[in-house]
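Reproducibility note. Readers wishing to regenerate the assembly model reported in the main text can use the exact inputs given here. Chain order matters: entities are listed in the order in which they were concatenated for prediction.
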Amino acid sequence: MTGFRLDKGGLIDRTTTLNFSFDGKVFTGFQGDTLASALIANNVHLMGRSFKYHRPRGVISAGSSEPNALVTLREGGRQEANTRATMVELYDGLAARSQNRWPSLNFDVGAVNSLASHMFVAGFYYKTFMWPKSFWEKIYEPLIRRAAGLGHASKEADPDKYEKAYAHCDLLIIGSGPTGLMAALTAARAGVRIILADESAALGGSLLNENEEIDSVSGLDWALAALSELRSLPNVTLMPRTTVFGWYDGNVFGAVERVNDHVAEPSPYEPRQRYTRIFARRAVMATGAEERPIVFGGNDVPGVMLASAMRTYANRYAAAAGKSIVVFTNNDSGKRTASDLRRAGVHVEAIIDSRKTAHLIVDVKGGKRVTGVELGNHRSIPCDAVAMSGGWSPIVNLMCHRGAKPLWNESIAGFVPPDVGSAFVAAGSAAGHMLLSECLADGARAGTMKGRVPAVPKCRDERFAVTPLWWVKESTGKAFVDYQNDATAKDLPLAAREGYRDIELAKRYTTAGMATDQGKLGNVNAIAILADATGRTMDQVGTTTFRPYYTPVSFGALAGPFVRHHFQPVRKTPLHDWAYELGATFVEAGLWMRSSWFPMDGEDWLAAATREVLATRSGVGICDVSTLGKIDVQGPDATEFLNRLYCNTFSTLAAGRARYGLMLREDGIVFDDGTTSRLAEDHFLMTTTTANAARVMAHMEFCHQAHWPDLDVQYVSVTEQWGQMAIAGPKARATLQKIVDDITLDDTSFPYLAARPVSILGGMQARLFRISFSGEHAYELAVPADYGSMVARAVMQAGQEFGITPYGVEALSIMRIEKGHVAGGELNGTTTAGDLGLGKMMSTKKDYVGRMMAQREGLQDPNRQCVVGIRPYDPKGKIRSGAHILNKGDAASMAADQGYISSVAWSPMLEMWVGLALVANGRSRHGEIVKLFDGIRNTLTYGVICDPVHYDRENIKLHA
Amino acid sequence: MPDLFIRVSPLSDIAIQGRFGADHGVPGVMFSLPAPSHMVTVIARKGKAKALAQALKNFDARWAGPDQYFVWGEPYETVSGKLKGLASCSDQSHGRVVIGIVGPHVRQVLAKGSPIDFHPAEFPVGKSALTQMAHVGVHVTRVGADAFEISVFRGFSESFWEWITEQAEEFGYQVT
Amino acid sequence: MLINCPHCGTRPIEEFTFNGDASPQRPQSQDMNAWYDYIYLRHNPKGRFDEYAHHSSGCRAWLVVTRDTQTHEVFAAVTAKDYARERGTP
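Running the prediction on these inputs yields the following structure tokens for the assembly.
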């Protein structure tokens, strides 16, 4: 043995040397190493500092339960904190740093905390930092955060890709040890679609770590043969490097696959990690069992580790944890470690088996590395590493994620999984069956979906017997229950004495079982010590709640690809290209990108919108209105359906005509509005507001299917089929006349509210509606979407002689406010038809959604806030949306509130600010001077209530 | 209606032909954009579901909801004329964009977006489904062992195209 | 949670939009008390519960999903159409 790398053996590739650095110092390891095994082989055991006392800490485990060896990997945007060195696959160029130390891991100022450890007892945060209260935010919290903690997240954007996926199988097998492999072989041979997932890079589970014998070959060879067979079968999906982290309703499992964490930099085409939701008809929990530490003095000194971990490092990684070992055990695992180590040529100085001797380890000597142990009889044994085994805990977590609690099993001294039904079963040591033969038999049983369970290969069983030893009470050194949180054995009786007897309370009070490892190693010991302190059994104390995630999952994996430009999909209108060519500024409206204004020569939005309004009102303008919801409604009962959906009547609408409609919610409040056109006797085209398009569709589906399933009506969204443009202004008719075929657009052939198919541009089938939101003589022209931009360009060309101007939603909004048309600010989910001045639309002759509740006294109250116009008292003054309205003599208070301004615009026509407001009893208050209180900007001005129609009250322009 | 006018697909500028993503071996999938054609939503009238299903045997009709179909390849006027009295028809030819996707890794690409099990035993050739991928509603039909056709609302097509092609990068993809 | 849509087969919950208790029926009468109950009165049962769910990212059918509010076990999903026809008018 040269150094601490064993001369032979292990599953490492000694021909591939890898360079890596830890805290800036360069080391070498081999392909197949983990960061932890490579450091051990380099005789580095000090890998971190503890959370509270900043004690030197080394690796405890060889797997995902590791509480101590947490390191920060990589630099810049790829920096990742709190990764477990035991799970990090070594690659060439890996850069790892220790955490929670300053200025260095070797010399850490924070370690003075350990000297004052009497202060840091359970609940010390609550006790110490109580007062003065003002100190909490500025002094205590930053202090605690700096002194106690884990690694730091990078503040740079992560340059790598993450993905999400779904997977389906008949049988999901979680864990690829002997149980999982046997289950997989059994199911796969029967043709069942299986997924075999394991958190490790190499499948095989404990068979990779242990000296076993199956079918007269080594456990390793048996596993490799099994895997090779599984790989050859089309119904098998193997998922290495995949942690199944949660079990959810419907037998859905959450899994994260570390696709590229084992390379320096992923290919730009591949994700770093992939989050997969696995839908499994059935699943097997073959997650194995976790070895427990023993709680004794100095059980955290670097060099003390789990017995199974120590033999894993020797067997799998050919790394010796020391030159001279002491084994401390309460079960047969200790003996197994001793024999494996001896076989590898490592000296075992002593085996302290609590079943055979009363003189247990009461302290471990050494600071940053074990130098020896002291026994209860004051005997000292020099050594440089300690292997400990406090028994085995089945890994029950997943099966407890939906609320069921595990049960205490005295014979194995461990919690075993609850029965959660046949869709998810535990097998092997995860079920508390600790012998290899039991694992294989269990696996075969769990892998049999139907028919007879096949025979399993013969194997050699290691003995398994355990006599609980939770805490060496005579310990002289600090005895840790929870390494990551620095919770000691004494903290639990203290918590119990202070009243925190419930395990959930004791957990939070002592912090045992918290942080990134969630007490994987320490919880059972903590429960046992609390049980002892309170005179209860293990079952009486019980476990804390198991929740996903089994091990930490990165935010990147949870977000998946839905970041940056994929955060939400973008929806573009058929006129997008046309608007883009004209330099439109776009605004997000829901998912839509709408042209908002069309700036020229450095105009700001207001200058542009003002110019667009003036041009439209004096000549002609064109605006993209494609985003309005369009629903094709057909069928013999289409009329009846619309009559029930709208508060006004549609049965009287003639074919070829459009009508404004108002929909209420069932509680009597206004839901949505829009024009609906009758294209034929049994065919309507409904339009909705942009914002409510999806909601209206869902509402129609609900009303039809849940209330009136026998109506013969069919409807579908055709929003995306049509590119629709408003052409408005005194020259709108002249412009359109140039592109329509065979029709004269006069008031006889195409009157106000006409809605008809037309042919344009020499043969294109389009739809033309004479409707107006701007208050101008206006049309909406709908064309099949793929022609949208082309037709918009043609309309621009036709209108060129009239100075046609494209306008966006800003100008649209200004014009509707000038005309007093209500929109989102007024249709805000609190207003009734009456509030909006549309009370007369409510039919008294038919039933419709919202009819009954609209008659409620509260909705009929004349003092309700209703829509009025509002202008500044000083015509040069400004009014602001959101300002509250008060009686002239009142000071601002909730009690004096009369309403608020809902919409505001600079009116290019009136050359002043105008708005709409919701004001108590507003319709009878036109002309009243009121106070306008803007609490956000803290301004108080005066305004005048007026008619909501600020411009062209007589609708002369509309009918021109 | 004869195509007197040139239809401009919203993907015409961004779906560039060529080989993208990982460049080893044969492309994992190939994307194609069939030339814009006809698509009509057909919904059975009350009591006519069976008669409609019978009548649709003469069409390329793809299930698109309860008693509802997308009829591909024939113009609205023809479809609505032939199905008069059986169904309500609405033209969607311009409202949806179709993307073809074929290749050995097609199921892996689709699995990154859709919760549907596309195993051939569960989702045979000819089957259609409505689902959601990357927050966009999609209609998907298996048209061959390794071939699917997906249609999405026109307005989402650009976003969806960018997303689904990115999901194929690891396998390498060809746009034809 | 998975819901077995009668039209689409098994789909995850993220394809659905929920709309609360399915048991209240839209009154046929003009009795305001019946209307107030229909609009506002909701029980919050522990256990079996009939709930409207819209397959909004699928076939767009409204369903009535029967599930256990405590265990999240889904017992059945039927179309709202069938549910409405089955129980008739109030």
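We highlight two features of this model. Chain C touches chain B through twelve residues (CB under 8 Å). The first strand of chain C starts at residue 2 and ends at 5.
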